[in-house]
Write a structure and sequence with these properties.
This protein has 260 residues and is an alpha/beta fold. The protein is built from seven helices and eleven strands. The chain is 29% helix and 25% strand. It is elongated, with a radius of gyration of 21 Å.
Amino acid sequence: MTAQPAEHPSPTPIRVALLGASGKMGRHAAEAVGGAEDLELVAELGSRDRLDAVLDAGATHVLDLTVPDASPGNVAFAVEHGLHVVVGTSGWSAERRSALEGQLAGRPEVGVLIAPNFALGSVLASAFAAKAARYFPSVEIIEMHHPAKVDAPSGTAVRTAGLIADARAAAGVGPSPDATTHDPDGARGALVDGIRVHAVRLRGLEAHQEVLLGGPGEQLVVRHDAFDRGAYMSGVLLGLREVASRPGLTYGLDGYLDLD
């Protein structure tokens, strides 16, 4: 008899519970997760659903795409029950992240990814801008979004400003030159980690960011445009696939990419 090749069982799919399933981002995520062969969407929860449904569904991973007021409680619940979490909700301040790290200290096997932006192009653009910012005396950020966005500046802009500030501090680069002494209406924008950030909310936009870098006789502009929420899905899937192998808190999808 001819020997038959051994059959290798398919790997067990990652069992995902989606929080915020009724939102625009949630609907895109449900389609993306549901269409991935190595993922299984086992629960779709809205704001009125009980979090216990995540446990009833046997989820191993939680994807949080809710709102800033609800997200910390959702993540705390997941971590308490040993579930890995990918978060695409804004509003995760340094204080909130610090509190989460304290909780994770008691669950060292759990991985949490908080991503201000899931678009791979946006993550790369922020990383490139941070590298370039060491070589230019001036840098400012303009972020442009649809008028339904509730927070300003955007989480992506805050993350980009932090990366730029860290890179400039490490290189010994001082603040951008600015002779402004009178700005009662805040026309110069917000200061985020010492970097000027300007927020635009305009009908017809989706999600766009420019980092403007200036030096003697030249300007470099690093820009990323997301035209619809499909731009974020590759990053969402990457986060879900990687988070279990990255215990503790990772802030920013760049932590999962080879960006030094």
